[in-house]
Amino acid sequence: MSVDITADRDVGGAIVTPPRRRRRIRRALAWAVVTPFAAWAVARVAGLERGALVTQIMTGTPYVAAGSLLPVVLAALARSRAVTAVALVTAAALGSSVLPRAIGSSEAAGTPLRVLTLNMLFGGAEPGTVTALVRRLRPDVLSTQELTPEMVEKLDAAGLRELLPHRLLAPDPGASGSGLYARYPLEALEGMFRPVGHNMPAATITLPGVKPVEIVDVHPYAPMEEHIREWTAALESFPPAVPDRIRILAGDFNASLDHAAMRRFLSRGYADSADRAGRGLTPTWPANRRIPPLITIDHVVVDQRVQVNEVSVHTVPGTDHRAVFADLRLPVS
After folding, report:
1. CATH 3.60.10.10 intervals, the chain
2. Is the dihedral of CA 248, 193, 235, 150 positive or negative?
3. What was the pLDDT predicted at 26?
4. How far apart are the first and last CA of the chain?
5. pLDDT at 239
6. Residue closest to 131 by CA, chosen among 148, 153, 113
7. Which candidate in 111, 197, 214, 292 could, as Cys together with 220 as Cys, close a disulfide (CB 3.0–4.6 Å)?
8. Looking at the domain that runs over 107-330, which CATH code has it been given?
9. Structure confidence by residue, pLDDT tens digits, 45-86
10. Model pLDDT, residue 7
11. Which pairing describes strands 186-188 and 202-205: parallel, antiparallel, or unpaired?
C-alpha cells in the first residue's frame, strides 16, 4: 500500500514584483526627491522668495546645492531621462549660484584700505579680543553693530582709542547702537540715504594720497515676520555706486547672497568682497554656539572698481557674529 506524502506538504513560493512595477516605484521616488530641490532652484534663480520664513531659509541654499547631487544619483538609478534631466538642471542651477563664491583671486594693485566689521551682540563681545584683533589686522576702519555705551568705554579702556582715534558713534543700550572707528579722520555724512532699521552712521574717511572714501555702517533689521518689509526697504534704500567717489558698506546685513533683495542691491554697482576673494561661503553666524556657524550674513561690500586682496573671518568671544576683515585696494584717483 502506497501513501501520497505530498498531500501534507506546504505549498510555498516567492512573490516577484514585475520589473515594470519596480521601475515605476523607483521613478516615483526619484520625482518625489527631485521636486523640492527643483522648486528651491526656481525660487533662488528667479528671486521668488516671499514672506519671512522663506526669506530666512533661503540662506540655506549652499547646503541645498550640495544635497542636489542626491536626486541626480536617484534619477540615474531610476533610469528615467525626464527625472535625470530635471535633476541635472537643478544641480547646475544651484551649483552656479553657489560655487563662484568659493573661487576668487588675489588682486593687489592700488592704495590699501583695510576694513573690519563686527556685530557685538548687545555689547557682549570681549573687548580685549576686539582690541587684539585690531592690533593684529591693523584695519583703517572698524564698523561695529549693537554697540552699547558701556562697550564704548570698555573698548577705550582696552586700548582701542590709541589704535583707532577717530570715530563716529551712535551707541544704544539695545541692538540699535552702531559706530565707526578709524585710523584716519572721519567726517559725518548726512542725507546720503534714509536708514531703515538700526543706527547706520555714514562718514567719509580721508586716507593719504587718495580722494575721500565713503563708509557706511550697515545694520538693517533681521527679516523676521514683524520686520520683513523694513528689511527689504533697508536694502533698497542703500545708495547706488557713483562714478565720482568710492563707497564701501560694511556690517551685519542680515542677508546672504542668496537673497534677491541683496543681489538687487549689489547690482547697483557693488560687489561682495568675500565673494571676490573666494571666501563667500565662509559662514559668519551663529558663532560661539553648540552648533557651528551656518550662514553668511556679515559683509564688506565694495564699489566694483575696488580690488580685494584678502578676506578673513574671525571668531570673537561674547558675540554670535564672526568678524569679517577685508584687505582692499582702492583704484588710482
Report:
1. 107-330
2. positive
3. 84
4. 117
5. 94
6. 153
7. 197
8. 3.60.10.10
9. 999 999 999 999 999 999 999 999 999 998 888 888 999 999
10. 47
11. antiparallel
